[in-house]
Amino acid sequence: MAVVLAYTAPAIGHLFPFCAQLGELAARGHEIHTRTLADGVDLCRGLGFKAEPVDRRIEAVRDAESPSVLRSASNAVRVLTERAGLEIGDFTRAVQTVDPDLVVVDANCWGAMSAAEAGRRPWTVFSPFIPYLRAAGLPPFGAGKKPMPGPAGRLRDWGVGSVTRVVFDRPFRVGMAPVRASLGLPPVHTADALLRRAPAMLVTTGKPFEYPGTDWGDSVAMIGPADFDPPADRPAWLDDIDAPIVLVTTSSVRQADEALVGAAVQALAGEPVHVVATSPAGGGAEVTRRPGLTLARFVPHSLVLDRAVCVITHGGMGITQKALRRGIPVCAVPFGRDQFEVARRVEMARCGTRLPARRLTVSRLRAAAQQAMTMTDGAAAVSAGFAATGGVARGADLLESQL
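RE: above sequence
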């Protein structure tokens, strides 16, 4: 059996899908080592992996959230290029310590990817989110624009692309130039070009959630959701709920949590549902209950989704796919990061609704949630598409093929 080193971005939303994929490899007898955020080390060790935190300086580089698409993209590039320079030494030390047969690198770890490219070991990229890949017929990543065929679409995409080149590509090229040069590697001008240096790439998505025309090339495999929840006891209060559940949940990184939860609680007041709202990045009491409403800091999603008829969320890839894999429609209210892209795919696949954060009001959210609850056919189609990808079992097959 092989020794596998997984190097993840310091984000719990990235670690959970990694845990699902690495757990499949561990079940096959492979020895798993991880480098991840400090708060995730104990989780990994509890799963039987050997784990250490990434350099604390990497985790200290934080994103500044913004509902602006352009500012969100600019913030992301700044964070990931700054981390990239720190990742080289951290990743190199991990490889020297573990001596792995295979390296699996998070698609957001641009420095570790470059160091893996400069090395001599088999390596693969794992993307727990919609990747920064470009393909014919697809709008540039970031703004959440819908595909638009024909001359009008090409003209629109050219305009969006020119903004992307200024906001995303230029700072990427400048930020990554010293990282690549320090490793003796050729420069790359876009995140797409960097990702395509990998021998193979696994992406946790599938059609019809992805646009029908999506073709990222032979080296990129869609494996569907890598669904994972940390081990936890079932909360006793869940059995006291008789009505259908609407799960309202926010990101593991604080992001206008009160705005979304507050609007959802008001929007669904009087509806024949029970609202379970979680804010894992927030403070306050662990559980607060009143008729028709349960507020909790954290509950494993899988426990609630068994009873849910709809999920209201910022549009993070993890919870959106967890819901859709079970055929549960989603109401996505994107506030930043890749949420703009996820929310648009929800809308285009007709597996839920999309409400831009700038338009968030109680009445609009009520209408969006009510409409989403009728879109079970689209959610079922996405669920079937996800099942057809092969999931983490196929992902493990593909990783083993790199050995």
